[in-house]
Every structure is written in C-alpha cells, then in structure tokens.
Design brief:
9 helices; alpha/beta; about 325 residues
Length: about 325
C-alpha cells in the first residue's frame, strides 16, 4: 500500500513530557535538541498546573527560544469553551509565527462525553475547531499562516472517525506493521468518505521508546523484532540503529507517514534519538537535514487552512 502523499521524507515528532520538571527551562532545552535534529514537532501534555505549569504556558515560553520546530500542547482546563481554547492556541501560533498545533484527546469512556484534553464536550459538534466555526467576541484575529495543526490521538472507534474527519495529523497506536496498516486503511477510507484531500490526515505511529540498553540488549519482540504491546502502549526497546530500520521499513512500505516517539527516559532517549536514529535516517536520505519552511504546516506538507473562527465571531 502506498503512502497517501507519496513516499517522501519521514515525518518525526517527539513528546517533551518530563514529570520532574519544575519550570520551563528543561522543556526549552529539550525542544532545542529536537529542533537541532530537524523534527517536525514536539508535543506536551497538560499537567493540570503541576508545579504551576501547563502545556500551553510552557510552550509559549519555548516558542521565542526556538525558530522552526512545531509546538503542540494538549490544551485542557483552565481553558474552557471552544472559543477560548481556540483563542489560546491561536495566540501560541502568533507567538511562534505559525508553528503551533493542538493535540485533541477524544475519550469515550462509558457515561462520559468526548473530551478535548480533559474538558467534557457534547459529541463531535462541540469539538474546538470542528470547522472552527465557533462564536465569540471578535478578539481573535486570523493567524497569519492559517489554522494551527490539529493532532488527534486515535485510541478507539469514535476517535478514528474524529481523526478521519477533522485531524491534520492522526497518532495511531500499533505494535505491528499489520496493525498500523489496518488503522491506516480505515483512516484513509473514512477520510475519503468525508471528502478529505488525498494524504489527509498525515498518519504517525505512536511509540514509547527506550534506547537505554543499546543494540545488543534488544529482547525478543524489540530491536530488530519490532515493538511490543504494553500497558503504556506500544513499546520499542533497543538501540538507535534498529529503531532507524523500523522507521525506514514502515515508512518505505507506505504503512505510515512517520512516527511520534515518547522517550522512556526523557533526556537520554531524546538525545540518542537525535544523535543516533535521526542521523542514520538523514544519512540514508530519509529525513530532512534542515527546515526548508518556517511553519508546522510547511513541515508536514499540509495546505494552508482558512480560519473561520474570526469570521464567525464577527471579525472583518
């Protein structure tokens, strides 16, 4: 099966989450490391004000310290309401000059409405930026480079539908190439039914990566054998060389457009990812050696999206 937008370069993203961080400094350092490796974007979950931090505030401090890498927070409380959520993310997009996205978590636990981050919504119509036609005071000017990129974590059926219909990037959980291919087929088929353009959404496999043991300590099912399913999701444990081979194979076979990688040990594994895996992919001509564009949409090869929120809110 061919990649939905050709077999161009791999797209790579990484999670910046650091449970022991007390201020924005470690996130700035990690984002700069990821940017040095040319990654498309980094993500950061909302900590619910743990140590006084939240993802949007942290990445707003990361933005002026970086120049190219995309910044994708999970936006949760205390950002109530679709309009205010959009206003907050649009502000990050302006500060970062078009490098912002937002990660949308869709939960369908029995008895609960779907969530964005951890905010209850009433079905898909309540999704911030379903079409971004939400009402509110005309205080949000259109970001100069279009809507921030929407990233949806695909964990179940309803999330699959949401991603197919609205996402720019879908993160799929798959421990095998066959699982990833099946999810991709479903997403592409549903996206076509919703009238999406070919290649939308971009599909990234989400993996937890533990690069601490090196190539020679890869257990069965890891390293050259691929990821293993765990309670935390698909886990790769091995070295940077085998991880580069896994990425190259899945991408080359048209299974995914790239990977979203969560370091098991934040700084150690991110450094080994950049200096090892990314360097190997660059050497093979599979990953960029510099950023040809300046916005996240350009990194991902996405068309500029019109912002309808400002128009709906009465902006000229």
């Amino acid at each position: 099966m061919a990649s939905s937008h050709g077999r161009g370069l791999v797209h790579l993203a990484a999670a910046l989450d650091q449970p022991s961080a007390y201020d924005a400094r470690p996130y700035v350092e990690a984002a700069l490391l990821a940017e040095r490796g040319g990654l498309d974007f980094v993500t950061l979950d909302d900590t619910f004000a743990q140590f006084g931090l939240d993802a949007l505030a942290v990445l707003s401090q990361v933005a002026p310290a970086t120049g190219r890498i995309g910044l994708v927070p999970t936006v949760t409380a205390p950002h109530p309401g679709p309009f205010l959520v959009h206003a907050a993310v649009a502000s990050l997009d302006r500060v970062s000059r078009g490098r912002a996205g937002w990660r949308i978590d869709v939960s369908t636990t029995e008895g609960e409405a779907p969530l964005v981050g951890h905010r209850r919504l009433e079905g898909h119509a309540g999704m911030p930026d379903v079409s971004l036609s939400v009402t509110g005071p005309a205080i949000v000017t259109q970001p100069p480079r279009g809507n921030p990129v929407r990233v949806v974590d695909v964990t179940d059926g309803p999330a699959l539908e949401t991603a197919a219909r609205y996402a720019d990037v879908a993160l799929v959980h798959a421990a095998t190439a066959a699982q990833a291919a099946s999810l991709r087929d479903q997403l592409c088929s549903m996206a076509a039914e919703f009238g999406r353009r070919p290649g939308e959404p971009r599909i990234l496999a989400r993996l937890l990566v533990d690069l601490g043991d090196g190539e020679h300590a890869a257990a069965p099912g890891h390293g050259g054998g691929g990821p293993r399913q765990t309670a935390q999701g698909p886990l790769y444990r091995g070295g940077p060389v085998d991880l580069a081979e896994l990425i190259a194979t899945w991408h080359g076979d048209g299974i995914v457009d790239g990977f979203h990688l969560t370091p098991a040990e934040p700084l150690r594994d991110l450094e080994r990812l950049v200096n090892g895996t990314v360097a190997l992919l660059q050497h093979r001509g599979l990953f960029r050696t510099f950023y040809p564009g300046s916005t996240l949409r350009e990194h991902l090869g996405l068309a500029r999206s019109a912002n309808q929120c400002a128009a709906a809110g009465g902006a000229p």
